[in-house]
Backbone:
């Protein structure tokens, strides 16, 4: 039976609470917090469906969540992904209410579903519900690992998870949404034989101090940048630095003539 928040007296000064009251009060608050989360997801999705964010003066629902509702980039991405999935699968509300599912893992599942659909491997409603049930009560890292193992394009999904985390840690309110950001990228996959894998690992070891991290996308970016710079220098396409440029005729420094060095003549020679 659900307790009404209005008839449950919440004591705000937690320092004065006994151990039992502190635990009971925390149980009550967190259970209602999950209920409020579901209500928030419903409201956000309905605003997006009606495109009310346009009436409020925003170009996207993502921007609306950032500026109007004051969510962070990470909170926005997770809530919008979860809201869209919950609209399609209302059955998962009970798992969210119970705490067996969280919006972080739901957003990961939504990314997996979209990636599978992109390669004509769309999941049925039953498959999605089964997948979600298998992800209940699991840490996010484990959910990511299992989704990557199930994916038909595991390398792309792994890099997508990695890239999204970078976007959420550096994206500003003026930037495009993570979904729009990811769409700007192209798919790049490669299968390495054992020899190439050894070379890749040796490269990581040798350039560890120069690489931003050991992700494949970071390594590819590093190699492309170095290769393009090297080729431009070889073709003379890189402008010479001012330090190496010849001085104009009017500014050239004339060499000072050296005075002849007088040497003493040996006595025997004299």
Residues:
């Amino acid at each position: 039976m659900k307790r009404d928040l209005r008839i449950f007296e919440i004591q705000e000064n937690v320092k004065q609470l006994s151990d039992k009251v502190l635990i009971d009060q925390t149980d009550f608050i967190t259970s209602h917090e999950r209920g409020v989360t579901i209500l928030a997801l419903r409201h956000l999705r309905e605003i997006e469906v009606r495109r009310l964010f346009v009436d409020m003066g925003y170009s996207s629902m993502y921007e609306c969540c950032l500026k109007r509702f004051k969510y962070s980039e990470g909170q926005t991405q997770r809530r919008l992904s979860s809201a869209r999935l919950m609209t399609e699968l209302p059955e998962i509300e009970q798992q969210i209410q119970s705490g067996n599912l969280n919006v972080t893992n739901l957003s990961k599942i939504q990314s997996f579903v979209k990636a599978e659909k992109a390669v004509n491997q769309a999941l049925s409603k039953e498959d999605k519900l089964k997948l979600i049930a298998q992800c209940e009560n699991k840490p996010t890292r484990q959910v990511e690992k299992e989704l990557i193992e199930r994916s038909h394009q595991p390398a792309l999904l792994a890099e997508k998870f990695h890239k999204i985390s970078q976007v959420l840690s550096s994206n500003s309110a003026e930037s495009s949404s993570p979904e729009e950001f990811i769409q700007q990228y192209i798919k790049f996959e490669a299968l390495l034989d054992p020899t190439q894998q050894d070379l890749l690992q040796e490269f990581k070891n040798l350039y560890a101090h120069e690489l931003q991290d050991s992700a494949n996308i970071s390594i590819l970016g590093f190699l492309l940048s170095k290769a393009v710079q090297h080729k431009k220098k070889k073709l003379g396409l890189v402008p010479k630095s001012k330090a190496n440029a010849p001085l104009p005729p009017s500014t050239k420094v004339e060499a000072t003539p050296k005075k002849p060095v007088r040497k003493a003549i040996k006595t025997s020679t004299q």
Remarks:
- The CA atoms of residues 5 and 178 lie 36 Å apart.
- The longest helix spans residues 19-50.
- The chain has a mean pLDDT of 78.
